[in-house]
Design a protein that fits this description.
With about 300 residues, the chain is α/β, with parallel strands linked by helices. The chain contains 12 helices and 8 strands. About 35% of the residues lie in helices and about 20% in strands.
Length: about 300
């Protein structure tokens, strides 16, 4: 039987302790340069594709859609969100069945949630937006760029595999065990405390776990579609991530990255970038201030 720590870790979002700490960090931490952290300017819902999508807007400027990890929600980004919002309008979204967005009678899928994101961008009257997604949200961000290329200006995918085999084996095993069978155990953790405070229907928690386990068991391989992407894309990973480091390198290679010397003037580089954060894991990277520091210059280019 799998270690309980692995079951918790392999819920694809974050460990319970880090999730519950997210809002406190977001409220307390200054942005780079000592600027005060901006507060949420708007919390709203958009009726798109039959789902009432909860989202928040922070800051002002060029739009950036921010997508959380599995069994997570907006607050998990901690100090990363206000740092991003210091120079742009962040549209932070709770995906289907997560945070403030209630589940609907629809299987979880990257494709459907990508359609939701594109529909939200249109709902807000935007022609396009950059998208930054972590883990589950990274998969949704990637599918948004694939399915709706006209909607995505720049793409940042964090700790995200482009095929299911990109996860470490132990993480895949843990995902399979994170079902309603462990719901009561998880209710003893801060993960449940955070979920139950924001979810429109907290009683859906066991069902969410079962739907996530089923969703994450499906095989996929987006190699050909990734290679065809034309949006400038930044790939971010921790050096001790749940996504294999060789897989992350393969993703960057599919984007044409690192295939030849850049030359002294950088003229051999394309617009795609790779960032590996030392000492970062799948359970720390989403609230690591270095994530914002790496992404901001890329988003501003």
């Amino acid at each position: 039987m799998m270690d309980r720590r692995m079951v918790l870790s392999s819920a694809v979002g974050a460990t319970a302790t880090l999730l519950i700490g997210g809002r406190g960090l977001a409220e307390a931490q200054p942005t780079p340069g000592g600027k005060p952290a901006p507060s949420a300017s708007k919390a709203a819902r958009a009726r798109v594709n039959g789902i009432d999508l909860y989202y928040e807007t922070h800051g002002s400027g060029a739009p950036l859609v921010l997508l959380h990890g599995g069994i997570g929600e907006i607050d998990m980004f901690g100090p990363v969100l206000p740092a991003l919002a210091a120079g742009r309008q962040v549209i932070a979204v709770d995906l289907q069945g997560h945070g403030g967005t209630a589940d609907i009678a629809r299987p979880l899928s990257y494709e459907a949630m990508a359609d939701d994101v594109a529909a939200l961008v249109h709902h807000l009257g935007l022609s396009n937006a950059s998208v930054l997604g972590y883990s589950l949200g990274g998969g949704v961000a990637l599918r948004t760029a694939i399915q709706h290329p006209q909607v995505v200006r720049r793409l940042v995918i964090v700790s995200t595999p482009f095929k299911r085999a990109g996860w470490h084996r132990e993480n895949l095993d843990g995902m399979a065990q994170t079902t309603s069978a462990v719901a009561e155990s998880l209710k003893q953790t801060p993960l449940w405390e955070l979920y139950s405070k924001k979810a429109p229907r907290p009683q859906d928690f066991p069902r969410l776990l079962d739907k996530m386990a089923s969703f994450l068991s499906r095989d996929y391989d987006w190699s050909a579609e990734v290679a065809a992407l034309r949006q400038p894309t930044m790939v971010v990973s921790g050096d001790w991530d749940a996504v294999r480091i060789d897989h992350t390198a393969e993703l960057f290679k599919l984007l044409g990255g690192g295939q030849k010397d850049a030359l002294w003037d950088g003229s051999n580089m394309n617009l795609n970038r790779l960032t590996i954060l030392p000492g970062a894991t799948h359970y720390t990277i989403f609230s690591d201030p270095r994530l914002a520091a790496a992404a901001i210059p890329f988003l501003d280019a």
